[in-house]
Amino acid sequence: MEFRLLHEDSSTKARTGMIFTPRGSFNTPVFMPVGTQGTVKAMSPEELREIGIKIILCNTYHLYLRPGWEVIKKLGGLHRFINWQYPILTDSGGYQIFSISSLQKTLEEGVMFRSHIDGTSHFLTPEKIIDIQLALDSDIMMVLDECCPYPVSYTSAKEALNKTINWAKRSRAYYRGEKAVFGILQGGTFKELRKIAAEELIELDFDGYAIGGLSVGEPYDLRFEIISFTNQFLPRQKPRYLMGVGTPREILDGIEEGIDMFDCAMPTRIARTGTVFTWNGRVNIRNARYKDDESPLDPLCSCYTCRNYTRAYIRHLIWAREILGMRLTTYHNLYFLADLTQKARQAIERNEFKSFKNRVFENFKDFENQEVNNV
């Protein structure tokens, strides 16, 4: 994998770049749709390509448990299995192990846990996580890490960070090959620990660096204070990935701080219940005001959904729980984020990112703090 830094904005830390992999290249900043189980929910690979998406994220934990990495390897790897020809980033599954599985024990050697599917016991080491991702044949692999909740004590955050650093060292010692491997910085909201994480992982010379352990309940301003603080220690010539973040506001604020890559399941999850992004704010299409609205979801959007369907029809589909409604809203939200990041890249190239972001925020309601309209 090669990261090529193309342009840095003159008034912010925003930057554009391009990541090259054997399966293709993609521009940064980029939002990666989440295909946890090997599918971006409600979307076909053809539709993702139509939108212009060049990289997706799949989850090692979920694919390890079902259908099993052996099955996927036998059938030719993850790309062939899901009919996706472009790059795939596989998350190590550390977050899922610590959040949705029944955790038994965290050891220096690895993590012992019970499957959330059938209760079976499993033990994963940093080396095993790499082996699974190699079997999946992903293009960008993530190391095993321990993600802390919020709030967390300094002592607990330090213990988790020490394990994460140790696991990163073992992962790097175990594999240095053609596949790209990203290190993950933990440390909670403690700046001292974030600095230690950056310094230790930079020594291991990973292909890229992910900021993990945020967007877990901490205040918004504190989140970006930590991001800004952490980024100053990361190598300029390596991609920076902010994990689990995907609202338009977060993406633009992250880009301003020099983040190159984002992922989040939220945009597709809220789409399936009728909430969509527009250039004028968040729209809850289930609201009664759209019952006979003949306008598109977003008059400023040129996606397939907005070119062909009305708010009234999509509202009807969502209320009727029709699959088509979920597909149309999901398509729109992914198109919106692809369009948002493309426009952000163009603004950076013109050294106008700050004014671009301000214009977007003037029109785009702060939907993170906006209550969903009563239906």
Task: Tell me the layout of helices and strands.
Layout (H helix, E strand, L loop, with lengths): L1 E7 L6 E7 L2 E5 L1 E4 L11 H7 L4 E4 H6 L3 H6 L3 H5 L5 E4 L2 H6 L2 E5 L4 E4 L6 E4 L1 H11 L3 E3 L11 H21 L5 E6 L5 H13 L4 E4 L8 H12 L8 E3 L5 H9 L4 E4 L1 H6 L3 E4 L2 E4 L19 H5 L2 H9 L3 H27 L3 H11 L12
Parallel strand pairs: 4-14, 5-6, 6-10, 10-11, 11-12, 12-13, 13-14
Antiparallel strand pairs: 1-2, 2-3, 7-8, 8-9, 15-16
Helix pairs in contact: 7-8, 10-14, 10-15, 13-14, 14-15
**Percent helix:** 40-55%
Q: Please give the order of strands in the largest beta sheet.
A: 4-14-13-12-11-10-6-5
Number of strands: 16
Any idea what the radius of gyration is?
Answer: 20 Å
Examine the secondary-structure arrangement and name the CATH architecture of the largest domain.
Alpha-Beta Barrel
What name is given to the CATH topology of the largest domain?
TIM Barrel
Number of folding domains? 2
The residue-averaged pLDDT reads 95
Binding site for substrate: 91-95, 145, 186, 213
Region (RNA binding): 244-250, 268-272
GO molecular function, one term: tRNA-guanosine(34) queuine transglycosylase activity
Family: Belongs to the queuine tRNA-ribosyltransferase family.
Can you put this structure into words, describing what you see?
This protein is of the alpha/beta class and about 375 residues long. It folds into 2 domains: about 1-265, TIM Barrel (Alpha-Beta Barrel), CATH 3.20.20.105; about 270-355, no CATH class. The protein is about 40% helix and about 20% strand. It contains 15 helices and 16 strands. Strand 8 (about 110-115) and strand 9 form a beta hairpin. Helix 10 runs parallel beside helix 14 (about 325-350) and helix 14 (about 325-350) packs antiparallel against helix 15. The longest helix has 27 residues, at about 325-350. This is Queuine tRNA-ribosyltransferase. Pathway: tRNA modification; tRNA-queuosine biosynthesis. Its cofactor is Zn(2+).
